[in-house]
Write a structure and sequence with these properties.
The protein is about 70% helix and about 0% strand. It has 10 helices and 2 strands; from the N terminus they run H-H-H-H-H-H-H-H-H-H-E-E. The protein starts with a helix and ends in a 7-residue tail after the last strand.
Length: about 250
């Protein structure tokens, strides 16, 4: 009985040490935590690149191996963040966690959820919302760029999500790189309201897709312009709150 209690105590202490290590890496400020976050960003960007390329490479022989390898990475990151959290339930209620769980499901069931695979690009949006990553960049004086970065990533995420949607539901009969480029070309032309008309989506569904793309795309462009060109906010160094400083002559 004592041996069993001793093993249970060792297991608990090992888990406690693991959680402490993960907390330092995910939420700490030392150089090791910064290097960990930089490595995590590089891996996440590679995962996003895989998601973008998925419609083109999903017929290849090695696709399932890559898919399940990415699923292992996403699952490991989700479990590690849960262990590093002081409130797991609160973390799971956050939209970024919902996105990660959904992405994990599409990776584990690539055939059954193939038509929803384009939503994996939301991982890029989820990555940009990581407060632990921005904490390090703000320490290096990059806080004023946070809002503009969010606006850029929101726009890029929207472009690739719509491109994936258009490719999946309107260009799938001719799967391949050329048709994916056509879907991207249509999305960019619609978002920018250029409207060349050389590529159009058929039927009522196509018209509704174009309408939604234009409305949301224009609003994201406006948001990006506001973030890029309006005066930077001034933050209090002590409390981090935004200071309301009036303009000259205002």
């Amino acid at each position: 009985m004592k041996a069993a209690d001793k093993r249970a105590s060792q297991d608990r202490s090992a888990m406690a040490r693991l959680r402490d290590t993960l907390r330092r890496l995910y939420h700490g400020r030392p150089p090791a935590a910064f290097r960990f976050h930089v490595a995590a960003i590089v891996i996440d960007l590679a995962i996003v690149a895989f998601f973008i390329a998925t419609p083109v490479i999903q017929q290849s022989a090695s696709f399932l191996w890559l898919d399940y390898a990415v699923a292992a990475l996403v699952g490991a990151d989700l479990i590690a963040r849960l262990l590093a959290s002081n409130d797991m339930l609160r973390l799971m209620k956050q939209p970024t966690s919902w996105v990660d769980v959904f992405i994990l499901l599409t990776l584990l069931m690539p055939t059954a959820l193939a038509n929803l695979g384009f939503l994996r690009i939301l991982r890029l949006w989820s990555l940009s919302r990581s407060g632990s990553i921005w904490r390090h960049f703000e320490m290096r004086g990059l806080r004023p760029w946070r809002e503009a970065s969010h606006a850029v990533i929101n726009l890029l995420t929207f472009l690739f999500v719509i491109t994936g949607f258009v490719y999946t539901f309107f260009f799938r009969n001719g799967a391949g790189l050329e048709n994916y480029i056509d879907a991207l070309y249509f999305t960019v032309a619609t978002v920018t309201t250029t409207g060349f008309g050389d590529i159009v989506l058929p039927g009522m569904a196509g018209k509704l897709t174009a309408i939604v793309t234009m409305i949301i795309g224009i609003s994201l462009f406006v948001r990006l312009a506001q973030a890029m060109f309006r005066p930077a906010k001034v933050h209090c160094k002590a409390c981090g709150q935004v200071l309301n400083i009036p303009n000259e002559g205002g």
